[in-house]
Amino acid sequence: MKEVYPGIFVIEEKGRFSPSDNIYVLAGNDGLIYDAGYGSKKALRYFFKEFKEIQKYYEKQNKKFKITRIISSHGHSDHFSGLTSVSETLGLKIILTEKIAKTIKDKVSFEANFRSDDYEDFLRVRTPLRKIWNLLRRLGMRLFFRGVHGLSYLDHPDEIIDENSVIIINGEQWKIFPSPGHSPEHISLYSEENGILFSGDNVLKMRSTWLGPPESNITDYIETIKKLQNLPKLKLILPAHGEIIDNPKETLSAIMERMNERKRQVLDAIKNHSDRGLSPDDILNLIYPNHKKFTRIIGRDWVVLTLKMLEDNNLIKREIRKNKILFFPIAIN
């Protein structure tokens, strides 16, 4: 564990085949834990060990240490699977927004968020072979979430809070607000007094966050980043993965520049091939011609989301030709 700001500690849980998770402890006499991390036995053992170190640290200084609540930033299994074990072991109240509560209440609700359609979500023509692949993909994801993340659902939060609300943590006001983009139910936590933002998965320091179908939405994501840019007195971002961000203005500006560049790359590619049209994979090959497979998989996700955004903005149109979805520019009069 590490104190990243006076009274705020981060516990970094190491993931198996997954990124490390940052769990934040806002220590004091009426504290809160932001995000619950993995639900595996190994991850939970590590969390409780580090949590006890924070408690000892406060006891040595004769400071009151009482954590009363825990909240998750969004409904992805690496951020909520530890909720039940952590709350029961530490005697905490679980507070969730209604959207997050509905997402994580059971297997049916959780998997509904990842149920996808080839044509609508991934811009592929539906075929029998793709149906078989999608079935195998769902089974693989189910095994991954349970085996790697220690997936554990929660159908009984102690309190449902509005996604636009103010909560008091250790006597200070913190604002909860919706921040969709990475996922539709995502929330952030901000203290204007301290200039501290808990950004969840929306803002990371060293890399772009994952944006892909069926959950992510680039238009929502861009609006969220603009909202974060307008937060008054913002000076520190505490992300769900990776290092602390102490240059929030520059980081958020870089994200916006990257989003605009991606939009320009896709639109220019389509305009330059307006005679024959381009499929998502054609665009991927133009932008990532010699990249590794994993990069191309992630790259296709954002290409698809960008195409859907451009389509919603009436800048491009789609046609199906020879079992391929092709995109063409729309002439602007």
Automatic annotation (TrEMBL):
Pfam families xref list: Lactamase_B
Cited CDD domains: metallo-hydrolase-like_MBL-fold
Residue ranges of every copy of the Metallo-beta-lactamase domain listed in the record: 20-241
Signal peptide: none
InterPro entries from the UniProt entry: Metallo-B-lactamas (IPR001279), RibonucZ/Hydroxyglut_hydro (IPR036866), Sec-metab_biosynth-thioest (IPR050662), WH-like_DNA-bd_sf (IPR036388)
Entry protein name: Metallo-beta-lactamase domain-containing protein
Protein species of origin: marine sediment metagenome
Organism phylogeny: unclassified sequences, metagenomes, ecological metagenomes
